[in-house]
Write a structure and sequence with these properties.
Helix content is 76%, strand content 0%. The chain is mostly helical. It has one domain (2-306).
Length: 311
């Protein structure tokens, strides 16, 4: 049981909804709102790939964590580095194989996503703006992956709405990544870990985060005016996501402290679960969207409240 608990800590299980909501728009838009087995396959591959990335994160940063997060599974010796590296590598390989079984393009994109994850975890995470750009790109590409899985090897292009979802997700996650580094800024500075606020300065980093976030919501709303949509009620989820972000980030902008950084992190997670899947509302009613989004939000908040681990 102790080993299982350690692995659960490695994969950051309270964050399980992030890869799901980032993949849903591409998959459901491409499937015209139908929950097919290919949609489910895309979500499962994205979920397990995300978990593998979290394990690799702790593997590559185990020496730093010995100072900054000594209670995590690797620095506390509840798991050995090999016990982290092997399962993560096996999961990555399985995701790549499953991707190719679903379609050649999906398999190639899984390989690209694994490469992006590796670059972030091994090299760019502590490189300031490079880290803030790399990880959001991978999260945004999950939309494209979901669409490619659904399309399969059949002829056809990725629906234009999926590209809106990709742009909005990537920009939102860029803004989120920058703000959430504030929760550990003094600790990172003490141990020589380069984050975007440390590299650019606090105010420039906050301005960049705000610009990316505003642009993300603008991109998400562009289809409302530019595309012949079946339903425009998807804007409800955009507005709810915006409210969650504004309410929880204003304190950080007024007073950039670690406490307010963690508050912004929680708000960004709530906002992402509301915002990332917003464009599924083009194909599904508000009620059906709520039946998908709200349980994910509720479970995430419950896990965050009951889990003592740092995310």
């Amino acid at each position: 049981m102790s080993r299982i608990k350690a692995y659960l800590e490695l994969i950051r299980y309270p964050l399980f909804a992030i890869p799901i909501v980032a993949t849903l728009p591409g998959a459901l838009i491409a499937s015209d709102g139908q929950l097919t087995w290919r949609v489910v396959a895309a979500l499962l591959i994205a979920l397990f790939g995300y978990f593998a990335g979290m394990i690799k994160n702790d593997y590559f940063h185990r020496e730093t964590d010995a100072y900054t997060n000594p209670n995590r599974p690797l620095p506390s010796h509840r798991l050995t580095p090999r016990q982290a590296l092997v399962p993560a590598s096996v999961i990555y390989a399985t995701c790549v194989i499953c991707g190719f079984l679903l379609s050649i393009k999906a398999g190639l994109l899984v390989m690209a996503l694994v490469a992006i994850s590796h670059l972030y975890n091994a090299f760019f995470k502590a490189k300031g703006i490079l880290g803030s750009l790399t990880l959001p790109l991978g999260i945004g590409l999950l939309n494209i992956f979901g669409a490619l899985v659904v399309i399969g090897n059949n002829p056809g292009n990725i629906p234009r709405l999926v590209w809106y979802a990709f742009g909005a997700t990537t920009l939102y996650d860029l803004g989120t990544h920058i703000t959430t580094t504030f929760k550990d800024i003094s600790r990172d500075e003490k141990h020589g870990i380069m984050t975007t606020p440390i590299q650019l300065g606090i105010r420039p980093a906050l301005l960049l985060s705000a610009f990316a976030t505003v642009l993300a919501f603008a991109v998400a709303l562009l289809p409302y005016w530019l595309e012949p949509l079946e339903q425009k009620t998807y804007a409800v989820w955009v507005i709810l996501g915006l409210l969650a972000v504004v309410i929880t980030r204003v304190p950080l902008y007024l007073r950039p402290t670690e406490k307010n950084g963690y508050f912004a992190l929680k708000g960004s997670m709530i906002g992402s679960i509301l915002f990332f899947p917003c464009l599924i509302g083009v194909k599904l009613s508000v009620v059906v969207c709520g039946a998908v989004i709200l349980p994910l939000l509720f479970v995430t908040m419950l896990l965050l409240r009951t889990s003592s681990q740092e995310v």
